[in-house]
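Standup notes
- DV: blocked on the single-chain target, sequence here:
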Amino acid sequence: MEQNMEQNEKFSDWLFRYQYVYRVRRTTKQKRRFITALATDIAKMREDIQIIEYNRNKKYVANNVYVGDIKKADRIICTYYDTPPQSFGPYHLFDRKKQSKGTTGFILVSALITLLAGLIATLAYMRIAPNAFDLSAPSTIIAALFFGGYFFLLSKVAKGLSNRNTLIRNTSSILALLQLIDEVKNKKVVFAFLDEGAYGEVGLDVMQESTKPSAKIFFLDSVGAHTDLHFIGKGISSERLQQLDIQPHLGKSSINYLFGATVSEDTDYVLEKDELKQKTLNLANVEKIIQLFD
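- DV (later): unblocked, structure below
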């Protein structure tokens, strides 16, 4: 199947577009473009697509995308699609405090560097600017355009810059879900693409409000990483996991997690920066996901 996926024209098309064209999914406009493309691709395979809006206000709306009847599902396979902000350090998969610390540190440092650059530019302009302030002078117009662009950039930096290396986190999981939708025809299996997963569990919580208490939920994260594939939960037997060379771990949560990561010395699941910046998928891991649910 790994070789078939490499030769599969449909999968290759998904890989190119979601790796490059729709790789950043952070602003409302970016998410809307992604969801439009996603719905178009899914509609070629299934007609039972639902787009659920929540947390709507004047400037923002979050969206979950469900494929199948979420209320009747026995098994739900899901992942998040939004883009995380830039941060320092590795990605700690289950430690929100460390994730927040890395993101906050990056925003502070980048904002300070941007402010310093603006101060230097202002001092340089004051040294070369003529004493008489002339609004019609070309130098004044150029300076106004420069500082307008500068403050626009500063506002972006203050909010956090989007991470553009998203193939591993979490485009790989989106691609795995698309392949599963194409191959799994059981109507009791529902697929969900969740918003706001890079920041917390809001999208997951919204989805769970519509599911049966008995439904088994499988959450994918960074499954295309060039690392071991891990499973935390009780929804799949250890024997089946070992057959596919997936590392089993017991979990206390009702959610079953499938993810790519390295286990650190303090039993923390992490993806280092060089692992997150990989330009190729670990198709063997993606194939394991397909076999697990097929």
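- Follow-up: The first strand starts at residue 49 and ends at 54.
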